[in-house]
Amino acid sequence: MESIARFLRAHVAEAHAKGVVLGLSGGIDSALTLRLSADALGPSRVVGVLQPDAAYPAELLEETLGIARSLSVETVVLPIDPVEGAFVALVGAGLDPTGRGNLKARIRMTVLYAEARRRLSLVLGTGNKSELLTGYFTKYGDGGVDLLPLGDLYKTEVRDLAAQLGLPASIAARAPTAGLWPGQTDEGELGITYELLDRILRGMEELRSPADIARLTGADLAQIEEVAHRVALNRHKRRLPPIPKLSLRTVGVDWRD
C-alpha cells in the first residue's frame, strides 16, 4: 500500500533515523508490518526482533525467521526468560495472568527500544485499528512505539492486505494471539470474532445508531453496547496522560505538535 510506504519513508526521514526495528511474533500483523517496511525502506533498513520465552514454539520461531530471510531482513533473537524471571521475582507476587502478560509486553518494549537506540532507528508497532479502538494492547508495552503503520486498518483489512501481498496462508490461518500466556487468544479475550467486531466498529466510525448497526451487522444490541463500552473505557490508552491546565498553552490541550 503506497500510502503506508510514504508514511514510513516520511517519518523515518523526519526523525533522521537509519531505519526501523519491530518485534516479530509469528502473527499476521507483525509479518505484514515487516513486509510493508521492507518494501518501503529497503530490507537493509529494517530489523526484526524475536523475543521468545520458554513457551514459544520452536517451529513458530523457525517459520518467523524464514519469513524474514525471504525478505532479506536482518533478525535478532533475544530470549526474555532470564529478564522475565527477575521481574517476576521482584514484583510478580499476586499478579494475575493479565498482569504477568503486561509485564512480559513491557519487557519486550524495553528490549525493542534498546535495540533501536543502538541502531539509531525508530520502533514500529504492529497494532491494528481493531486493537487500538478496543484497547487490546498493553499500555507502555506493545502500545509503546514510535509509529503504527497498520493503525488505520481493521484486523479483517490486515488479513485482506496480507493475502493480496502473498504472505503465507499458515499465518492467516493461525488464531490471533499476543502469546502472553498458554492458550491465550485475541478473540477469546475479546469475546467476539474479529469479523463481527470490525463490522460493529465500522458502524461506530460512520456514526450510525446502535439499531442501525444491529440491522447491518446482525449483532444484537447487547454486543454493540459492550463494544461501545470497551472503546470508551480504553480511551485513556489512546491519549497522552492528562495534564491540568495551569498556563497559557498546555501540552496535549492547546499546545499541539
What does this structure look like?
This protein has 257 residues and is α/β, with parallel strands linked by helices. It has 2 domains: 2-186, Rossmann fold (3-Layer(aba) Sandwich), CATH 3.40.50.620; 192-257, no CATH class. Helices cover 52% and strands 6% of the residues. The chain is built from 12 helices and 4 strands; from the N terminus they run αβαβαβααβααααααα. It has helices at residues 2-14, 28-41, 58-70, 81-91, 97-119, 129-134, 155-164, 169-173, 186-190, 194-205, 210-217, 221-233, and strands spanning 20-23, 46-50, 74-77, 122-124. Strands 3-2-1-4 form a 4-stranded parallel β-sheet, sandwiched between helices. β2, α3 (58-70) and β3 form a beta-alpha-beta unit. The longest helix is centred in the middle third of the chain and has 23 residues, at 97-119. The chain is globular, with a radius of gyration of 19 Å. The mean pLDDT is 94.
What is the topology?
Blueprint: H1 2-14, E1 20-23, H2 28-41, E2 46-50, H3 58-70, E3 74-77, H4 81-91, H5 97-119, E4 122-124, H6 129-134, H7 155-164, H8 169-173, H9 186-190, H10 194-205, H11 210-217, H12 221-233
Parallel strand pairs: 1-2, 1-4, 2-3
Helix pairs in contact: 1-2, 2-7, 4-5, 10-11
Short structural summary:
This protein has 257 residues and is α/β, with parallel strands linked by helices.
